[in-house]
Amino acid sequence: MKPTRAIPELIGREAELRRVRACLEAGRNVLIEGPVGVGKTHLALAVCHELGVPVFRIDGDARYSEHKLSGWFDPPLVVKKGFSKEAFIPGPLVEAMKAGGVLFINELNRLPEGVQNILLPAVDERLVVVPRFGEVRAKPGFLVVATQNPKEFVATSHLSEAIMDRFELVVLDYQTSDDEREIVRANLARQPGAKKVAAQIKEKIIGHAVDLVRLTRGHPLVRRGGSVRAALAVAELWVVLLQKAGAFEESFFEAALLALPNRIEFEPNAEAAENSKNEFEDFLREAIQKVLSGPMSAEPSNQKKKR
Q1: Which residues, in sequence order, are CB contacts of 68 under 8 Å at separation 6+?
Q2: C-alpha span between 10 and 143 (Å, rounded)
Q3: What mean pLDDT comes out for the span 228-244?
C-alpha cells in the first residue's frame, strides 16, 4: 500500500493549522471535528504534507474489519508457507507503524467498535498484537490523525472515552465569507470553461454562490445548511449553464437546483409529500432574489440546527 499523497493548498485556517501542527510536533494524536465540507481532510493532509511524513489513509465504514486495519494472512501463501511473515499482508495500521508515519482515519466515528478496539493499543502503547504474527511496535514518528463529523450527524457511532482520551481535539466550523470566496475563486481558476467568462461576471458568480450557501445556514426552513463544497458546485454549474443559456438569473437558479438538494437538509412546511418539490423551488427562488437584490451581510449566521 502506497502512502497517501498530501494536498498542499490551504486557504485560511491559520489558527487551526497552528493547533494541528503543534499536536503533531508534540507527538500527540489529533482528532479534527466539524460538519461536512469544512475541510477537515484537507487540513489534516496539508499539515502532514508540510511535516514531510508518509501518510496511510483509511475511510470510516461500518463494514470495515479489524483484519483490514491491522493485516491478514493470504490463504494461498499460508498453504505454501504456513503462517509466516511472508504470508502476511500488512494493513494500513501496521504499515504506518512500521514506517513511522501517520495513519489518517477519515471519519473515525463511522468505524465499528471492534476496529476501534484494535486501534486503542496502537495509539496508547504504540503496539499492536496480530494473532499468529506477533507484536508490531511502532517506529518513532508514528501518529494517528483522524476526522469525525459531530455525533448528531447521521451514520456516526459513539467513540469510547478510552479512545477519546488518546486524542487532542481540534474543532472546525465554517470559514469566513472572504475565505469561502477565495476557495471558490481558486477552484474556478482551474476550470477551463471559466476562462471564457468575463472577470466581472465571474466575481458576481463567486459572491452570489457563496452568499446563497451561507444564507442556508441560518434559514428557518433549513435544518442543515450547505458548506463551501455546495458553493463550489453552484459556481461551477452556473458557469457552464450561463454559457449555454445566457440568462444570468435563471442559470443561477438551475445551478442551485442541481447542487443544493442533496447538500442541505430542507424542512418543508407542507405536510403533503407531493408539495415538497415545489416548496423547495419556491424557497430557492426567494433565497436567490434575496442574494441578488443587494449586498449580503459579511458574516451570515453559522447557526447550527438541531437534528
Answers
A1: 91
A2: 22
A3: 95
- Please check whether residue 57 is in contact with residue 6, taking contact to mean a CB–CB distance below 8 angstroms: no
Fold of 177-293: Helicase, Ruva Protein; domain 3 (1.10.8)
User: Please, which residues bridge with residue 72 across strands?
Assistant: 89
- 53 pLDDT band, cuts 50/70/90, is confident
pLDDT (0 to 100) of residue 130: 86
pLDDT for 303 equals 43
Residues 245-257 have pLDDT tens digits of: 779 999 999 999 9
106 bridge partner residues: 59
Annotated domain spans of the chain: 14-171, 177-293
Contact 108, 67 (CB under 8 A): no
CA 43 – CA 240 distance, rounded (Å): 29
Higher pLDDT pick, 17 / 155: 17
**Own/partner pairs, 185-188, CB within 8 angstroms, 24+ separation:** 186/9, 186/11, 187/232, 187/235, 187/236, 188/235, 188/236, 188/239
d(CA 23, CA 14): 14
- Give the CA distances from residue 52 to residues 4, 24, 96, 97, in Å, rounded to whole numbers and listed in that order: 12, 12, 14, 16
Model-level pTM?
0.81
170-211 tens-digit pLDDT:
999 999 999 999 999 999 999 888 888 899 999 999 999 999
Measured CA distances, 73 to 13, 76, 87, 122, 130 (Å) = 42, 9, 5, 20, 10
Backbone angles phi, psi at 48, to 5 degrees: -60, -40
Nearest to 175 by CA among 20, 12, 2, 296: 12
For residue 154 the three cell numbers come to 447521521
CB-based contact 115:269 (threshold 8 Å): no
CATH of domain 14-171: 3.40.50.300
